[in-house]
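Subject: for your reference before the review

Hello V.,

The reviewers asked for a structural picture of the protein, and I figured it would be easier to keep everything in one thread rather than splitting it across files. Below is the amino acid sequence we used in the manuscript, unchanged from the supplementary table.
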Amino acid sequence: MSHPVTSPRHSTAAPDTPDQPPSWAPAAPTIALLTALGVLMVGQMYTVLALLHPMATALGTTPEQVTWTATAFGFAYAVGFLLAGPLSDRYGSRAVITAGLVVATAATLAVSAAPDLPTAIALRSVQGLTAATFAPSALSYAVHHLAPQRRGTALTCITSGMFAAAVLLQIGAQAVAAGLGWRAVFWIGASLMALSLIPVRRVLRPTAHRATGGGLRQAFAAMPRLLRRPRLVALYLSTVALMSAFVAVYTAVAIAGPSGIAGNSSAILALRASALPALVAVPVLAPVLQRLAAPLRAVLAFALAALAVAVGSFLGGHTVALAFALLLFVAAVAAAAPAVVEIINSHAPHARGAAVALYGCSMFIGASLGPQLTGALTGLGFGGILRIVAAALVLGVLLALPTLRHHRAD
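And here is what came back from the structure prediction:
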């Protein structure tokens, strides 16, 4: 049997717009690969949240200062997203994913050799910039290459994988660091990136390019036009609020410590793992959730996230109840993200790569602010931090409401 990329049927049939009548890419292997890679690549942001104490000891600093390695990665990732989206539009998702994996492998390996905190921060910036090539390309690939009835499930699985990374890679990093040291976390990450090049080349199809006169410059020019649309700007700001809340909560678990489990590494590991059922359930329930319009799903998910964090702020001494509140919180975040992506895609059908790039930039600006928000509020204690986070999520609800009103008007 010939390979899908090289067979005559598929050599030029890869769709460049979702409205062409193509032979679509096989959904199951594509979704599985992009979801797994989302865990690996986006998870590099979150590994250090489980390594704050061992890295601080090795680098001669404090855990609060080591949070800058997460912030540096996140800001660089946000910038990389802005570059990767238009590059994906111009050169094709598979090409950008492949090139990104090669350079991200080298950058991740370099982080493992950092001798001090300034070097670690600089190398994490490079790692973030290179890892950013994956997510916008993956989301764009799903929209362009999968059949319309599969896209909602694909977006939900891919974005859920990216959120699962925050939990899975923290758990993995904590376990690896306990046995092999924190530097081994980056050795293993680099090895997995290198190995993933094989399935990327086998499963993903090259994208047929549009013959556009403006080329790459035209792709980048779409961004300022998108930022002149108030509803899109509100969605991007709501994403900043969502992701800053998401990362702030898990940073608070690491450095502020709920009173009932502070200093207990096993209990903290269990608290991190408590969200995993939500990250499995949301993709499974995707067909049910998609019966609701994307704007309504987004608003309801933001509201549930705010409520769960507000309730959790009073449960620091009750581990099981707090774990349940975090489970609801993560489920809400995982449901909100694909809904926001769907809304953005519907608002920018001719510049999806640029629109998703701005979305990813918003995500990681928020993710970068999360650790610093927690660090600045440490004096308030775990409960105080979560109450501020809940207020930020209420702001996210308010920012998402205009899309709901617009949908009803349609």
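For the response letter, the relevant points are probably these. Residues 105 and 190 are 5 Å apart (CA to CA). DSSP finds 17 helices and no strands in the chain.

Happy to draft the paragraph if you're swamped.

O.
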